[in-house]
Amino acid sequence: MRGAVRVRRDFEEPVRPRSEQVVGRDEVLRRAREQLSRGGSLLLHGPPGIGKSTVLRAMAAEYAESARTVLRCSATESESHLPFLALVDLLGLVADEVADALPAPQQAALEAALTGRAESSLHQDGLALRLAVLSVLRALAAKGPVLLVADDLQWLDAPSAELLGFAARRLGGMPVRMLGAVRTGTEPKEQEHDPYLRAYPPEALALRLTPLSRPQVSELLVARGYTGLGRSTLRDIHHTSGGNPLFALELARALAESPTPPRPGEPLPVPTSLRALVLSRLELLSTEARQTLLVASAGARPTQTLLGSAGRTNAEAEIALAASLGLVAAQGPDGQGPDGQEGAVRFAHPLVSAALYAQATPQERRAAHAALSTVASDPIERARHLALATTGTDEQVAARLSEAAALARDRGAPSVAAQLGLLAARHTPPDGLPGADERRLRSAEDALTSGEIDLAREVARDVLDRATDPAVRVRAWMVVIDSAGQAMADVEAVFPQALADAGEDPRLLALVRYQLAWRALLVEGEMARGREEAAHAARLAATAGDRSTELMALSFQAQMETLMGHPAAPETLEKALAEPQDLRVACDHNGAGATRFRWQIMSDQLTDARTTITRLLGEVRRRGMVESEVHFLRGLAETELRSGHCARALDLAHESLRLARDTGIGEAAGNMFTSLAEAAGGDVHRALVLAGDAVRRAEDDGDLIYLSRALGALGHAQLVAGDAAGTVQSLRRARELEQGLGIFDPARGRWHGDLAEALVLVGEPAEAQDVITATREHAVRLRRASVLAVLDRAEALVKAAAGQYEAAAQQLTSAQDRLAQLGYGLEEARAALALARLRAEQSGRGSYDEAARLFRRCKAVPWLRQLEAASATASATAPTAPSTMAPESLLPHLDRLASTERQVAGLVLEGATNREIAARLFISVKTVEATLTRVYRKLGIRSRVDIVRLAAGQRRGE
């Protein structure tokens, strides 16, 4: 819509942002909001399709309602030669509102430019037209804030651009903000956007939009309805699009419209709309040069030397010509490519390579791969080229691909191994050994390891449709079950079929019984039965000599016994850690190493736990075990959170959650733990949202184990947010669930102290004491020192509620000291806060300095905000030295404040800084300072603190 939109209020920061549809631009939006809230102007720039217009529309929608007048224009390339067209868009509907106030020469010049009824040009009308535009903007700004929104500034007609620049440089101090976007190159160039800033007021902020990350591209595609894409497909879309959101959406659309998905090793379908962006330049190349670029596009890391070895004898000259056309990145003066590799060939954008490869015929592609299959330096790359150059089955090719898959597996690249395994299966003859199904199944297991869950499930189902060998079928059933993750209820029908295929074979039965142990836990909520099934699986595996399955079953059994507080837990863990070990099982997230970590962190051995989980994380990253990486990132985050390193824990939790969302692995658990991290070191509102989502997901999956953990996280977030009643409701439910599951170790969920504290707050101290007493019994038996200290902290609150202040203070002091010795920094700070509150309640005086110091050390942002509120309340209610006027004599003078003075005083009461007040009222910081000086003088006070005290006195009726 062009023209003006009017509202009555001044610019202010929107209460609720409206840009949720913008994906992956949090930092850009944050900086943009800061700039606009200060009354500044903003220029967005970046290459085509990067999302400038999307961000521009979102920001314009947020800030349009806070402007009296909104002026818009959107230039187009085909109209860029028409003079004053942008000026017509901007002022055509609003000029009449203020035109009568313009001098006659300015009126005439502006009318001629806007209507075209008379000959008009900058040369002819000169200063009169420039002054007219400036006068119109000043007149509109005098009536209220003006927001000017301009897209595609690169196509703005020259006269309009010059007029805007003239006016912008002279609008200092006026409430006019400009919000625009301009196209710049794919490769960032120094000051490329500078010419467009000439049409902006001074000190405008230029923000470059950069490519999206792979998780952000995935989020974008899901938001636009492209769901169900596998991890490898998402990786290919991200690579081919170069993180460009428009290109990614076009590639996803082409994939959705394609009747058959690409096979392993084949590229994504590139739609005509994207091919057209680059193929026109290819017509300027000779046939030989295009063939050289095709070979380069088929290679993983092409160099001019490699191209020469592949038969492209004129590669150097042909690559130089392609660089001059912008198809490949130019070489540096030292002869190195953009990546620092001598003679390296890198396409200007991955889409150039993809479009070139997609445009070639199958015969041309095979010829390119055949040329590279003998000269590529890496054996994995040679095998891949050989496969893509070969049609039909060939046992020799299949064997080389299987060898390459094993090499990729050893290198920690299971995703590559999965793709090579599928290629090997495709080239395996019907009578080949191993058979095609065996190779497909190994590929599915590699896909599971790499986090490509959908691919693993699809391949396993394909194997089951044909395979008759019981061993192959049971392994395929295991992949199907594992791919269900926490939602094991979705594969209920699989277990009878897997048991039937296993027959009486102890090795196969051990595999199925191990999965039945997980089913008993996750679906039925029967921890004791899960322990029994795991013990049965371990015995069967030992009989069959399957050490890997035996170790996994023992690790599961040890975990169950730990959670149950079973006396056999240490002995079972020792068996799971005994030699001989399978290194892959040892670092699996359900293996003995993970069980050892869980034991350490529940036993308050935080230093040992950190060492264990850090080593495990490094090993699974080396091996490419993505699902285990998700779990171990979360485990390291938990260790840091227990230690009071809240910022570090928050970063690790978000890293784990991003990976979980990218792979579709354990999102419910990721949301649950990230909620705990947010409540400790981030944002309480986000913590509530994440915990609520975790509860819903766990309920949908029928996962009772994670449901109790999610309820614990939700209850904790509610407590930090000040919702004691909500905390009680959530944690009572968690208590009932864990009692039903047979979980008696309080170090597992650690929600018991929160429940007791919330019960005191809602007036149920007797129930709080019951929770403390029952939990303490298990904590003493299991020697959970940190749990006992937290219970003491909660019990002190029960005593304080009964008026036993001295006993409560002694217990809090003891709890704080013990938590400090154990290394639980955040819990230590909470004890210090409880002690400060107790002393303030008891005597009306109390210092929060110690608690503040501890919370700052932990970087516990939500707790610091709680403390600041408590401290402010104490300061406002504490007795103060007499002022020049008593509070009761000050109240009548509030009516003497002017409107702006009342607004400023009101924002001071909300805790706003002078800069924040200036942004919200659209005035300068100096004006705020001067206004506050007048407020102090009129009210007979001396500082901002006195305003808070004055308000407190008014609330008390003083």
The gross shape turns out to be flat
**Residue fraction in strands:** under 5%
**Could you give the distance between the termini?**
54 Å
Report the structural category: mainly alpha
Number of strands: 5
Features of this protein?
958 residues, 50 helices, 5 strands, disordered N terminus
Task: Give an overview in words.
By secondary structure, this protein is mainly α. Helix content is 65%, strand content 3%. It contains 50 helices and five strands. It is flat and about 105 Å long.
Q: Would you spell out the secondary-structure blueprint of this structure?
A:
Layout: H1 26-37, E1 42-46, H2 52-64, E2 69-74, H3 85-91, H4 95-99, H5 104-115, H6 122-125, H7 127-143, E3 146-151, H8 158-168, E4 176-183, H9 194-197, E5 205-208, H10 214-223, H11 231-241, H12 245-257, H13 272-282, H14 287-298, H15 304-309, H16 315-324, H17 350-359, H18 362-373, H19 379-389, H20 395-410, H21 414-426, H22 436-449, H23 453-464, H24 470-483, H25 494-502, H26 506-522, H27 527-544, H28 547-564, H29 569-577, H30 583-586, H31 592-602, H32 606-623, H33 626-642, H34 646-663, H35 667-681, H36 684-701, H37 704-720, H38 724-741, H39 752-761, H40 765-782, H41 785-801, H42 805-822, H43 825-843, H44 849-858, H45 861-877, H46 887-890, H47 899-909, H48 914-921, H49 925-939, H50 944-955
Parallel strand pairs: 1-4, 1-5, 2-3, 3-4
Care to give the gist of this entry?
This protein is mainly alpha-helical and 958 residues long.
